[in-house]
Specification:
Layout: H1 4-23, E1 31-37, E2 44-48, E3 52-58, H2 67-82, H3 90-104, H4 108-133, H5 137-148, H6 159-178, H7 187-200, H8 205-220, H9 229-244
Parallel strand pairs: 1-3
Antiparallel strand pairs: 2-3
Helix pairs in contact: 1-2, 2-4, 3-9, 4-6, 4-9, 5-7, 6-7, 6-8, 8-9
Length: 255
């Protein structure tokens, strides 16, 4: 159960984040509340409808240094939904995803990995706002530390699991590259780069190239509200499918 002090702390954190977004030009119109879920295994998520939205936070996340970043991240999702951005239009996303699942004959686990891959793209879009607002050195260091924990350095030998791990690596590295925060003189950056190189060392050249193309897409992607997001999403899923279904001999014998 939340204490009164926790209630007040969360409300103050939410109010400050909403104010900072408005000052940066991202005004929110929904009524937004914060909920605590003691059973939640990940940090949090946003529940969004037409007029009221809430940010659901795991109780253990209340003590995280990334709490403010989490609130900003979920508020950014709410903002993009409010402005009806194509990146958050469920009818477009579901139609394209269903098309890819049917065309490629994906099983349930592969479809789940595809959805996870889409989340990386969507999170890359909303985090453009988060990185803009978390602009001091301490907060950027926190983000870098957070992404280090995402990185994997060795495949499992299961193509589907390894594709998901590679996609996570790509998201973490692209997130920093996209904002010019991947600096090879930084110990954290060097650690992330080293972990990814170690992971890719198990793959043949052709599949390293597929990974690099996928990471580059995440790094350079720009959301164009006037463009055809469905076509862009299909292009993105094609790159992701290259990771999900590599050539049968692409993964070398694990050392």
């Amino acid at each position: 159960m939340k204490s009164t002090s926790q209630d007040e702390f969360l409300e103050e954190s939410l109010d400050l984040a909403v104010k900072n977004m408005k000052n940066a030009g991202y005004e929110l119109h929904n009524k937004i509340s914060v909920e605590i879920d003691p059973e939640l295994q990940f940090m949090g998520y946003a529940k969004i409808d037409s007029n009221n939205s809430s940010i659901v936070i795991a109780d253990w996340a209340l003590d995280s240094d990334m709490l403010n970043g989490l609130i900003l991240h979920e508020l950014a999702h709410i903002y993009f939904t409010e402005i009806n951005s194509p990146s958050h239009q469920s009818e477009i996303i579901n139609e394209v995803m269903s098309h890819v699942v049917e065309q490629e004959g994906l099983n349930n686990l592969e479809a789940r990995s595809l959805n996870e891959g889409f989340n990386h793209l969507q999170n890359m879009i909303v985090d453009d706002i988060v990185f803009q607002l978390m602009d001091n050195e301490r907060e950027r260091k926190l983000i870098q530390n957070f992404f280090v924990t995402w990185m994997s350095d060795e495949p499992t030998g299961n193509n589907l699991i390894d594709a998901s791990l590679l996609a996570r690596n790509a998201f973490a590295l692209a997130s920093l590259k996209r904002r010019n925060l991947l600096n090879e003189s930084s110990e954290l950056s060097k650690l992330m780069i080293s972990k990814n190189r170690q992971f890719l060392s198990f793959y043949k050249y052709a599949n390293k190239q597929k990974y690099e193309t996928y990471e580059e897409f995440l790094t350079k992607f720009e959301l164009n509200d006037d463009g055809d997001f469905a076509s862009v999403l299909i292009e993105y899923f094609e790159l992701l499918m290259n990771l999900l279904r590599p050539d049968s001999k692409s993964l070398e014998t694990l050392r």
